[in-house]
Amino acid sequence: MKGFGEKNQSNKKKIKYKLQVNTDALIIKAFELQAQGKKLEAAKYYEYLIKQGLKDYRIFSNYGMFLNEIGKPKKAEIELKKAISLNPKYANAHYNLAVLLIGQGNLKQAEIELRKTIKLKSDFTVAFYNLGFILKDMGRLKEAERFYQKALEIDPQLTDAYLSLSTMKASDKDQKWLNQLFSESLLKNKDNRELVNIFFARSNIYHREGKYENSAENLIRANNIKLKMYKSEANLLINKTKKLEISSDKYKNNNQEFKDYPMSIFIVGLPRCGSTLVESILSLNSKVKDLGEVNIFEESYREYKYSEKNVEISEIYWRQLKINDRTTTTTNKWLFNYQYTGIIAKAIPNAKIIHCYRNPLDNILSIYRAHFGTGNNFSSSLVDSAEVYCDQEEIMKKYKKEFKNQIYSLNYDELVTHPTEEIKSLILWLGWDWNDLYLSPHLNKRRVSTRSNIQVRSPINSKSLGGWKNYKEMLKPAMEIITQKDNYKNLKY
Fold this sequence. Notes:
By secondary structure, the protein is mainly alpha-helical. It is 58% helix and 5% strand.
């Protein structure tokens, strides 16, 4: 006969067993929901399990990834590091932390986490790909190429890797991936996003080989698919320009009230206008902080517009920059700030606006070839790209007359043809002391995440000028619009 204590112990074991079974079921349910793409529901389970004191590294890793995706990186980092502390050999946690760090711009630490991921799991395809991605941004191109190729060795169906390799001057040692890229079997069972990657990648290779008709054929196929996926927003952009022009005319000039502000440089224009090269030149100045492509001014303007107007746009903008030292000069390369040029000139003390532009057909071709990851949906239509180009040129023409002392016109074609003269002219306009280092922007070690991250690593050259002539037939729809403008009537097929 069992005593009371024995019976009590037996009951405790049963309860513990039931709790364990219940917990296991909840974990399985959470993982199932995440696999189904129901991340919000899965996150509720993760949060509950963590509150119950569960010490499962997978739960912390998945929950941390969710927090990062919903814009809570600080909390996400805590959960991910907790997962790593519970199991330092869990590759997924290191990978998820690397993704978070990439989003924060901390590429050096992200590289460390990705290398740990690969060491723990040698067939982690996307880790190899993302390591190549950040190394490319950091200018370590040979290393990047190696990791892209390794990703394809593991998964020959990874179309993102083909696209990335196609933008690089790959070595001739291992061209197996090229044969795979042009194989008909690669097109099988691919979704639209993957097909777009393949056709852009093939176009890039044909372009490099000088087979421009083949390149154009693949470009058209890629962009036609993109237009089905993402509707062009050209009309919205053009209407926005008009609305902001009216707002600019109504805005009162407040610059006179602030005299101790640092220089704020805004580089504006269309994508692929040479702006990355310009920012690389300017950021060689040790007193300059390059902000990259950040939409901070528009955010500041919106906050001001819907506020009680107690704080000026300039104060809101500087708060958004999170820079304590007001002697720091900044470069803001959100190109569509050309729409805000009138307001920027009136609202931001010591604002200097550099308008980058180039031959319209070279610019439109480069936009059409770029395959932007997000945004710029007009880029898949040659007609819409031409319309947006003309809209941008017209509004900047007006602002240059109104704010001629604050806007510098920088012709990319002249910059790459006569770099010494053009760069010296720009530096003089900014009022900076001359340094020969400005002539070597390819030596700049800064991170570059734009579509120009390969070209900007090479010395200044004029190779891309007149490239549109190789695509005359394809560019006819854009040509018909551009040549209606007086200053482009002499452009010929």
